Amino acid sequence: MRVRGRLTWGRRARALAVLTVLLAGVLPPAVALVPGTASAGAAAGTPVCEVRDNRLREISGMVATDDGYVVINDGADDEARRRIFFLDERCAVRRTVSFPSRPRDTEDLAIGRDGTVWVADIGDNDRSRPTVGVWRLAPGAEQPVLHRMTYPDRPHDAEALLLDASGRPLIITKGGSGTVFLYAPTTALRADATTPLTALGQVTLPTTTTSNPFSFLGRGVVTGAASAPDGRRVALRSYADAFEYDVPDGDVVRALTTGTARITPLPDEPQGESITYSRDGRSLLTVSESAGQPASRPTILRYPATATTATATPATESVGPVSPTAVRPAAGQVGGAGGRTWPLVAGAGTLVFLLGLAGVLRWRHTARP
């Protein structure tokens, strides 16, 4: 998601966007308020290198390669920033690849075993896009090829992409209170056609208390994903944490929908949307957007890729394909693991609080000189 203006308002705007999801009733606010398990005093990551190119202030996706990194910006107005950037091991730009047409909202990257780079053009803050897409940049190609896809139920905002064992792209929605949904193409992708997506299940993130700029709101959304080089682990990230899942049999969907996550806190990253594994698989690497932060540049951080097994509620019991109507809660239905209900009084109190906070944020924004 792109954030404009000063840092302080950028953070408020991000929180307000998540508030809108909660207040719209897509997912219950009570779920987001459940106390967590990861420590709020977790250690920060170790700096690897600083990205000094001014075109890269809104990094929303990253993958590690044998000789550096590939990164993309969030959707950018400046054409010079709407490119695929190849960095060396010191984070200096080695080359760029332009898009043949303007992407809508690029949010994540994945890399295939053959070196193909996949760009996820799947962001949809307003949930209004009739199609989303992935750009496929084959090794040695001069430009990526666009493949359009359409959801089976309704538009979704998404910022995370994985590849399964067969190389099929998996889209993970952003969510809003800890529950996200998985979608994948129903057939092989074609450049000259729009491919339908199908719903494959849902994931409920473990709850944590990890410190981040968006408090509990930042812990319940998925802003990026990564696969280990050997394919035996995958990770989802929020603004606060990374959640690792073992994939012993190559079935990424089963791992996410039935596995238990290991939590790696990613505390206080300014606007953390990117995650990748190091090439040796021993570390998780992250980088944050830095738009609106004049004194700061994006810095790749390293975290150990091993953490304590989560004791919070694991992923949902959904296994395999589910129908679109099963994925989308009906009006007034409570989302989250196990179909739990939440007390009416607590929900009403949370709603009043969120409405008040949303009003304050809007007033402070409009009152700026």
Number of helices: 6
What's the total number of strands? 20
Helix-strand sequence: HHEEEEEEEEEEEEEHEEEHEEEEHH
Shape: globular
Span of the ends, CA to CA: 25 Å
Structural class of the helices, strands and pairings? alpha+beta
Strand share of the residues?
A: 25-35%
How are the strands ordered across the major sheet? 6-7-8-9-13-12-11-10
Mean pLDDT: 80
Q: What percentage of residues falls in helices of 4 or more residues? A: 10-25%
Rg, rounded, reads 19 Å
Strand count, sense and barrel status of the largest sheet are: 8 strands, mixed
Which stretches are poorly predicted, pLDDT < 50 over at least 5 residues? 2-15, 17-36, 307-353, 360-369
Assembly type of the chains comes to: single chain
Architecture overview:
By secondary structure, this protein is α+β, with helices and mostly antiparallel strands. The protein has six helices and 20 strands. Residues 2-15, 17-36, 307-353 and 360-369 have low confidence and may be disordered. The strands form four sheets. The chain has an eight-stranded mixed beta sheet with strand order 6-7-8-9-13-12-11-10, covered by helices on one side. The protein has a four-stranded antiparallel beta sheet with strand order 1-20-19-18, with no helix packed on it. Strands 2-3-4-5 form a four-stranded antiparallel beta sheet, with no helix packed on it.
Describe the structure in brief.
This protein has six helices and 20 strands.
Layout of helices and strands, plus pairs?
Blueprint (H helix, E strand, L loop, with lengths): L6 H17 L5 H4 L13 E5 L8 E7 L2 E6 L9 E5 L5 E6 L9 E4 L5 E5 L10 E6 L7 E6 L7 E6 L5 E5 L5 E7 L8 E11 L10 H4 L5 E4 L5 E5 L3 E6 L5 H7 L3 E4 L6 E6 L5 E6 L10 E6 L19 H4 L16 H23 L3
Parallel strand pairs: 9-13
Antiparallel strand pairs: 1-20, 2-3, 3-4, 4-5, 6-7, 7-8, 8-9, 10-11, 11-12, 12-13, 14-15, 15-16, 16-17, 18-19, 19-20
